[in-house]
């Protein structure tokens, strides 16, 4: 039966953080464009609550699609999807072993690889490039030390090594996604130790990293959404993880009568689901050889010449 | 050596000053209540409310300083609630303090969701951060040491200048003296017509003032955004410091510098491959260790005092006192 | 008796005032208080699953509340139940996934280690409190932060489940606390909590030890005079409180999650402490207050789905209840003395 | 008239502390107020000084009707008060304490130097010697009192109220104090003081007002009065220095104290080399001005305070090595001096209060389980046998009157079967009827062969009950007087620190 109105729910504990924000943006865009019903549910941070929250959503059979984001929800999701086999869940940002679910998988390691490559090449230029010292090191600030973040770091490190093997990568973790002050201090510590470019994958904590780059007048790289505006002149670029594109395309299919079915959709460099965007104010300053090399790398990733190991 | 250079340098000291400032402000605020004889565990909540409303105020008015004023006003409201319950109703200060902390946490999140549609954090939205003060001539005079005195937001200077001001306040002003008296010997204050209630209210509000500044500094100075629970236990650290400093401004400063340093230093340790989660416990471990060590040290002091008093006594008393049997 | 009745009616009035204030705040965030209330009720008691869900939420609050009651009885503020819960939860999980033992024994062993872990975690603050009078409120709060980071470290660096999120391997089924109904995760942890509450109340009422501890809490100098070892009992009381806090964690691991993960059960320690305070330190009354908070929590899960209010509104209401209760009892007592009793009773 | 109080009534709940009191104090006189413990003296002075508000009555100061709303109003009217318990701030200097509330300021800041100078000047002028720069926490009580008086003077007081100023002073300090007071009067000031020491009242005062049970008995010129008359007015009956009849039944030594030393809370030696013994069937009294180490002695014997040296043997065990619990096991019962803090839990029931210290023992508990039925039954029996005025064993102790609370403590301690009874101020704040009952009970315990150490500041009590009286001064046992030879002068001399050996009477 063709649906007159599509109803969508999304559940996560991280709607306020970069990637979550981009998902919410995509959902809202879909709402405006297609007039869908939309419900956002914030799980909070208590593991005990998750399962009931899923059940509350699934029970009414009211939602055509339920988008789920956040690895801590996986256990509850698996249980509830077994209980409600007809309910279609879309798990964002990973693939589980349940074949009945829909997965939107992102190749964040690809974008991070590009980010690492760019950062290390610029760092390798030394004082040729403004604000770069001769420390030959770049930095990384993670939120919590968890697999997804490790995957970002892995791509970043591999990219750096690939493009400029003698540039060192210093990585630190804030242990929290919610303490921007700590993010700022960590970044300043990295800058102080000679890392001139710091990549943040730390939600609001990372916001502190961006602001620190302005304070220290060094470089930062944003994540998930376009962060060039947070510290103009100090942000090299952003590794975009286009959650908005993912949810928007899925909903568009659904609305178009093309029901979303179980399986994995991969959002990577090739599909534009992951992308490295150099900030407009920085782009003109980047030496031609770096730009060329970067394009080569992107091509290498696209045609499979460059293989990036995923972190377990 | 190279490692040491990398660890301990001007940047580390500057970082220490930055990490110290918010704890210092809130702890100095707590100094008022501590000196007035109130155990104020609600600092965390006052700071959080200050941070949130500073951001709201800044967005609303487009001015950082108006934002700070909003943050301070919110913290004052919390301080007033604390004072009404604890001073007037004489409710248990731990209960009230904890409840106000919980209230601050829940309220900021609820309001965030009501105003911005999502919880989590407030970034952008036109928040105006505090400007950084560049001290003229600092660079020329101090060279590479300039980052130690220049380039902080105004509230950082306020925090450090507040220390000598508070010393002066407690020693040389009437209100400061009354706060001390009310905390140390309320009967004395009462007998002299000093209103205990009034002094405790004033102390609570002064505390709210500085806690609010500390919060505003977190969200408009230190960085320019608000996140859920962004005070991250700094208020509790301050309470720990207050307990073993007894609220004396100089000791508070020393304690805060210790934690600021532990914080800044531990962040740097991570780059040497220590596991992040363990390194992150360092400030808390330092706080606890200091708390325990200083309460342990209270002992030898008693012995020393006793020896002194015995000596004093012996000089007038011909009978010599016998050797201690149960040295306590 | 009329005293007790008056105290009780006062408590009810205070809760009413808090709810009224809560309603105003709900209006302020742009929702209808009536709708929020109805949603809360439906979410908490709407059907048998919801009721079971409420009881599921009640369980950790109740056990943490009993832990707090034990401390309060002896005049100790254990604000570190949160940390004890985390360590207990991890310890139980560790036993659960490391050893293979016969069913039942495995579970008991895991609970036992959870208890030991909780007690051990509070032992140092307890020692310093008893021996050197170090403020236990601050030391236990600070140790919460360490506990959470430490268990995260264990989980992520030492025992992470390969391929999984930040969580340990699942425990063996032999260590599970059995579920009570088929339709809910509600498990025997609730029964443990109820038995514990009643048991602790009986111990305080009917044992010499309980009498001594109660006196330590309410009149320490009198207790000291009467030959009760105030320092030792203070230490023991904190230790027991921590042990029960650890047990709460164990129950959550073995009964619900079946593994330990980062962000295991944040906030339950505080909820329990508040429930205990609201119950004025009585374990049996804590059953009621824990149920109340459990219902609020459970009802709030529907709140996000069915209304536009944030679940955190519940936290706000909880805080308001505590504040108004702490104030109202004193309105009555205010004239009593000039010196002001600053004990935990409010 | 410097002060005129008319019809002052003050109630605390149902209790009437002041009942229609009239008091007139002439300018330039020393006016003594006496009365037993709890007669309402402090309450009356607190009302005069604005610390309490009267329920009825009016106040005229210097002939003008005045509402003394708070101490500030009293100070403004030229009153000054030195409280029974000093109200000084230990961490502040003498000068800061003197000027607290009326600091000398320059440019808005407190001028410590000027305050010190003014304090030195005043102290010289009135002969109250103090070092203005010292921290008060380090000074002796005598000096603290001088500071309190300086505080009053610096506020320009013309009428000075002193509440039991000599209770904590040595005789010499008292003498100096009275000299100072006389010099005040010579300057036209007025002095009102409260005292329990009849000699000093007779010696120093011009006029005496006697309070009893919250009422004024009389105001008389001191010169017209004899000490006997005073005492009669105070207690409303002749004081019986009569000894209780007794049979000599001293048995074996139960408590043997040898060269015992202990420190007070300020860590100063408070008990200094006490040695004495108490036999079974004997009441040994300890006399002394409050604060001469009696409390500390009692605390050491009951294990609440560590001894710094010496031994105290109770039936073969050294108490100084035992915990309070073990000492109770060894056979001590203790009626504490501060019964509200040590003696009871005010919020608990009578039954729960009668349990303390024996909650591990049958019949109150079996194998660690309390038997509340037995406990309540036992408490009910105690209520009857000790004539405790209460509705039942379930009554909260805080609802009882002071005397009845004391009886709860006595009932518990005296029925413990202990061989040694340590009884500290058993009748403080207790009405006369109850006093008799308590004395009877102590004598019964003596007859039952208990060894009793009775600490009291009331000499008549000691004279009535004790077989021997030891006198404590400044932590030392100054000497011993047989109970039937109790002679106020001799004991008084020793209480003042004059050793009987050095100055034979
Ligand atoms: N009796 C009192 N009880 C409580 N607080 C008091 C009392 N007297 C003064 N204070 C407080 O002490 C502070 C200073 O009081 P003070 O009377 O010196 O103010 P002031 O006379 O206006 O000062 P100045 O005129 O020198 O600037 C005030 O904040 C006041 O609230
Ligand atoms: N705030 C109060 N609340 C209740 N009762 C009180 C209060 N203050 C005093 N009393 C009671 O009033 C009576 C008179 O007390 P007051 O202190 O005036 O006695 P006093 O004559 O000074 O005795 P003492 O010689 O022991 O100092 C006592 O029974 C006391 O218990
Ligand atoms: Mg007296
Ligand atoms: Mg008196």
TrEMBL record, chain B:
This protein is called ABC transporter permease
User: Per UniProt, which keywords does this protein have?
Assistant: Cell membrane, Membrane, Transmembrane, Transmembrane helix
Task: Give me the segments passing through the membrane.
Answer: 7-32, 38-57, 64-89, 95-116, 148-170, 201-223, 235-262, 274-294
Its topology with respect to the membrane?
Multi-pass membrane protein
Question: What is the top-level taxon of the source organism?
Answer: Bacteria
Lineage summary: Bacteria, Pseudomonadati, Pseudomonadota, Alphaproteobacteria, Hyphomicrobiales
CDD domains per UniProt = TM_PBP1_transp_TpRbsC_like
Q: Give compartment(s).
A: Cell membrane
Source species: Mesorhizobium huakuii
Please give the InterPro entries that the UniProt record associates with this protein: ABC_transp_permease
TrEMBL record, chain C:
Cite the entry's keywords alphabetically: Cell membrane, Membrane, Transmembrane, Transmembrane helix
Q: Which InterPro entries match?
A: ABC_transp_permease
Which residue ranges run through the membrane?
12-30, 50-72, 84-101, 107-128, 140-159, 186-206, 235-260, 272-293, 313-331
Localization terms from the record: Cell membrane
- Output the superkingdom of the source species: Bacteria
Keyword Ion transport among UniProt keywords: no
Signal sequence interval, chain numbering: none
Membrane topology recorded in Swiss-Prot or TrEMBL: Multi-pass membrane protein
Q: What is this protein called?
A: ABC transporter permease
What organism is recorded for this protein? Mesorhizobium huakuii
From TrEMBL, chain D:
Where in this chain does the entry annotate a coiled-coil region?
A: none
Q: Which residues cross the membrane?
A: none
Q: Which residues form the ABC transporter domain?
A: 3-238, 255-499
Family of the protein in this entry: Belongs to the ABC transporter superfamily.
State the organism's lineage.
Answer: Bacteria, Pseudomonadati, Pseudomonadota, Alphaproteobacteria, Hyphomicrobiales
One Pfam family matching this protein: ABC_tran
Q: Which GO terms describe its molecular function?
A: ATP binding
Q: What organism does the record attribute this protein to?
A: Mesorhizobium huakuii
Q: What is this protein called?
A: ABC transporter ATP-binding protein
Keyword terms, alphabetized: ATP-binding, Nucleotide-binding
Q: Which InterPro entries match?
A: AAA+_ATPase (IPR003593), ABC_carbohydrate_import_ATPase (IPR050107), ABC_transporter-like_ATP-bd (IPR003439), ABC_transporter-like_CS (IPR017871), P-loop_NTPase (IPR027417)
